[in-house]
Amino acid sequence: MTLVEILQLLVSAALIYSTPLIFTSIGGTFSERGGVVNVGLEGIMVMGAFSSVVFNLTFASTFGTWTPWFGLIVGGIVGMLFSVIHAIATIQFRADHIISGTVINLMAPALAVFLIKVLYGKGQTDNIQQQFPYTDIPVLSKIPLIGEIFFTKTSSVAFVAILLSFVCWFIIFRTKFGLRLRAVGEHPQAADTLGINVYWMKYSGVLISGLLGGIGGAAFAQSISVNFAATTIAGQGFMSMAAMIFGKWNPIGAMGSSIFFGFAQSLSIIGGQLPGLREVPPFYLQIAPYVLTIVILVLFFGAATGPKANGRNYIKSK
């Protein structure tokens, strides 16, 4: 393989594996900027993956190549609806955020597998026929060298996720909604005295996290796993949380961290094709992303400073 071909393979694989993490980590950023810790991102991704695969299998003949894109929307809607459980538990009933998220993570795979057995009579779905393909990005792929490395045989949905990170950065740091969301996550009592509806902002943050987390799960199922089983989303939600923390609760930072984790994941798939990694046992490449997640959390979780009121239940009377 030439150097350009190696770089093209690395970039393409990293973008594909980072896409679900980008969507989900940005979703977690919205939730925690509003003061609600959403440990349930893993379960939300499961429901997004499940619903998108079912939709894809059902409507592939109707929508053709547009099916995966509609599947993203369906996964996002289902993820948002599922996140309502976490929102009500933590905001309305003031439940512990970690416990509520853990319940969602335990409930989602069991519920999804049960519904798969009801719908298809077995523990996992068939492979979808319409998935996000490797494609060339129009115009950009024609740029000499750069186009060949970054924009040839890659995933178009990856660039949608990257563009979204900049849009979400603008929303959080340059709009009235973002200012209010951050105010609620930093000091809800002060925000309340200024006339901001604290509960509504918290609900908004959690629901946006559910929407983007569901889209992340749908992106994973329709570009990487291409089916759904109980183990389809294996730690992706927790990697997304690590990317969010490593990115300092900033959508652009979360995007960069997600690409880093996506690159680590892709090595377990393409490592055998790369000079220097062919001799490395596949086991080490497979566990590398999870080891990196633990290392990142250990090194940065204590030092990282998130929103001051993050994880604290708000009582209006106080």
How is the main sheet built?
none
SSE-based structural type:
mainly alpha
Report helical residue fraction.
over 70%
Q: Which geometry do the CA atoms define?
A: globular
- pLDDT < 50 stretches: none
Query: Average pLDDT value?
Result: 91
Tally the helices.
12
- Rg, Å, rounded: 20 Å
Overview of this protein structure:
The chain has 318 residues and is mainly alpha-helical. It has a domain at 18-234. The protein has helices spanning 3-33, 41-63, 67-92, 97-120, 146-150, 156-174, 176-186, 188-193, 198-225, 236-246, 251-270, 282-300. The model has no long low-confidence stretch (mean pLDDT 91).
Keywords:
single chain; 318 residues; 0% strand; globular
Provide a short characterization of the protein structure.
The protein is mainly alpha-helical and 318 residues long.
Topology:
Elements: H1 3-33, H2 41-63, H3 67-92, H4 97-120, H5 146-150, H6 156-174, H7 176-186, H8 188-193, H9 198-225, H10 236-246, H11 251-270, H12 282-300
Helix pairs in contact: 1-6, 1-9, 1-10, 1-11, 2-3, 2-4, 2-9, 2-10, 3-4, 3-9, 6-7, 6-11, 7-9, 10-11, 10-12, 11-12
